Amino acid sequence: MFELNLAWDRAARTGPQPTSHTLRIRISPQTRSGLGSGLPVTMAIALDTSGSMLGEKLVRSKKACDAVVSLLRGQDRLWLAGFATSLTQVADGVPGGSDEAKSVLAKIEGLAAHGVTRTDIALQWIEACLRDTPGTTRVGILVTDGKPTDPKGKQEIDTTPLLQMADRMGHAGMTICAVGLGNANSYNSALLTQISDRGRGAFLYADSPDALEELLSNRLNASQTVAAADCSLEIERMMAGATIISACRFRPEYLPLEPLETDTGSHVEIGSLRADVDTDILLDVEVPAPRDDTWQGFEDIFEVKVFGGDAISCAASARAGLTNTASYTEAQRRNSEVDKDRLNWDVNKYSDALIKVQEQDKSDAASMRKTGQLLSGMEQRARRAGNEPLAANIAAQITDLRKTGRLDAHRATGLLTASRSLGMGDAAQTTSTVRSNRATGVLAETPPMKEKQ
């Protein structure tokens, strides 16, 4: 079971204009459990075995797949295939710890690099493997070092069907993670990021072949702690005119979300909830200006409920109340934790836009100007959030951009990876619970709650 804790970044101020706010929804497991305590995992790994994988990349990729096999629990199941011009399946629902799992290791070693990169058949295969496995955490992993091609190797293809497949799998409760292997100049990071986002998963950047083993092992470990899959928020509007502009899952890992308007408020699909860490959802909210003087003090804006899976048989719910004040000073007081998360969310918005600019066909001058604007905004938000190492890295990229006139895909993808991991550093720690004080409207920090037994 889970509980909800809600916190705003600041109070509203009386005036003629609507006010903008960030609402953080923290979904906490009532009893924290460690590694391997979650639902059974059904994982399908599609490994690129096209000609460009020849050598160290394929050798390291095979080793990474071996590591995944060794980490499977008895209740977990693995599908594994190499894909190039065609698909070669080497594991078909193999249970962890079995003799069959041991035999898969030899089959992995037999994979060879040849052919072109048929990303379409890889995603089709992943969907087929995960479709009929209810009651499990369904995870698809796409590992590739190149851009998708047609059967003849042509790279300039329509990627819309790939995104549609990822979107369909995400809505069906599957989690799709795309892994970019090697230098990002060789593949389309924007596409892989979009596939991961639409598949409710994470984009993973293995900038060197030896980084892949740790990335895949960590992904399996995280999947083995999932307590509820395919979860969603139902947000009932309690104040007329209150609007959710945008949303993201910020912790334990970043994922942009799409709020859908309903008759009573909004529906937000948030993916899986883990048993070992909090899950934080951020909402960008616009609160209407009061039509008269009736709204003074504290008032409920939304009621939030979380649904999904057998672990949430009784929906957790909480109300998001906000204080309206005539005091400018009071309205400028910030909840430091929520405000930092808001700024880091901005960093991610800039990095998402930056990755897309790198893939667009623009003149050098236009691309450089837009890239510079995005980097400057990203640096400013990072500094305000106290992320000095990241800000210094961005500043160095700005200097290099002015010297060379370009930001290559490798550096842009590195910044994307760094920004998307901003919430992961403290995700595994028990953080303070933030609650609103109805008497004053101040968002006060309280010590962590004791776990319920």
Q: What are the main properties of this structure?
A:
six-stranded mixed beta sheet; disordered C terminus; alpha/beta; Rossmann fold; single chain; 11 helices; 34% helix; 453 residues
What does this structure look like?
- This protein is an alpha/beta fold and 453 residues long.
- Among the domains are: 184 residues, Rossmann fold, CATH 3.40.50; 83 residues.
- The strands form four sheets. Strands 2-17-16-10-14-13 form a six-stranded mixed β-sheet. A six-stranded mixed β-sheet has the order 6-5-4-7-8-9, sandwiched between helices. Strands 1-3-15-11-12 form a five-stranded antiparallel β-sheet, with helices on one face.
- The longest helix is centred in the last third of the chain and has 24 residues.
- It starts with a strand and ends in a 7-residue tail after the last strand.
